[in-house]
Amino acid sequence: MITPVKQVNRVFMLALAPFIGLIICLLLFRPELEVGSIMPTSLPEDQVTSQTQTISKELAGAKEAAVQTSSSIKRTTLLYNKTTSTMSTIVQKAKVQAARPETIYNKRITSKLGVPFDRVDSDRITIELYRVNPGSYKGYAMKIKLKDHNAMKMALNSELGRSETTMQAVKRSGAIAGINAGGFADSGGKRYPLSTTVMDGKYINGFQASFKDLFFVGLNDDGKLVGGKFFDKSSLDRLHPQFGATFVPILMKNGQKTIIPDKWKVSPKRAPRTVIGNYKDDQLLIMVVDGYNESGSSGATLEEMQGRLLKLGVVDAYNLDGGGSSSLILNNRVINNPSDGNLRPVPTHFLFYK
């Protein structure tokens, strides 16, 4: 019979048997450790010293190279900055020198006009307004520099035959200034532009060869004033007009007075006038002369206009529609005194944009 004490001893023996077996296995099959496989063999002292010296020399060389590279970069940077500064100075001086002839020429023509009493200046255009009072007539001169050729356009109503005043054209298009342009012909209660008229590079009602004393004047796609008599379409096409209108007669060509036909010397002798011309640097000059009526007793003669334009150094000049049509608008103000008492509606206007 198994007593309780024996039963407890058997349980402990069964529980401890696996651990006792593991201990016996470890004692019987214990592996021998090789020290060399774990600990590295030590290097000879002289070899360690040699490697240390080599590494030290390489570090010193790298340091010296880094110092030299840094110094070289600094020298290059200083040279670059100095060169850039020198080039900027040269470019600036070149700009000033290049602008000198233009500045001198502009001062020369401005000195002949006097002191402007109104001025508009923007990135696109510069406008200076002067009084013209030579004694026999009174008027205004407007000198215009187009910095952007799109700063000048022509107004022509999309419904051919309709007309408007220069003020209406200015307000409708948002322009800063404007003058009346070409002549017109009335028919059936409507007002049509005279002869060859170009708008947006296209001919309105086709090309008409110049006849009698008519001429065409407008602006080309380079922003330069072009004009004259054109007896065939190809001659005008070569100038690439973007817009332009027609009237009579031409006043100046290549800095010289043209011959004025006898008819226009007396029909009328004196009148309100609107004239457009250009200087050799492509600045524009517009002159608008006041007159009390169209009877021929007030305003300026065409010969007087020629004389004044010649003194002002204008190269080419063209007489635009005058009389009651003459109008000059700047900054939403009517500058001249229209002979009709009010602005006359006409088909075409030259407009200027700020």
TrEMBL record:
Assigned keywords, A-Z: Membrane, Transmembrane, Transmembrane helix
Name it. Phosphodiester glycosidase domain-containing protein
Q: Which residues form the Phosphodiester glycosidase domain?
A: 174-352
Q: Which InterPro entries match?
A: NAGPA
State the source organism's domain of life.
Bacteria
Membrane spanning residue stretches:
12-29
Tagged with keyword RNA-binding: no
Q: Does the keyword section mention Membrane?
A: yes
Record the organism. Paenibacillus polysaccharolyticus
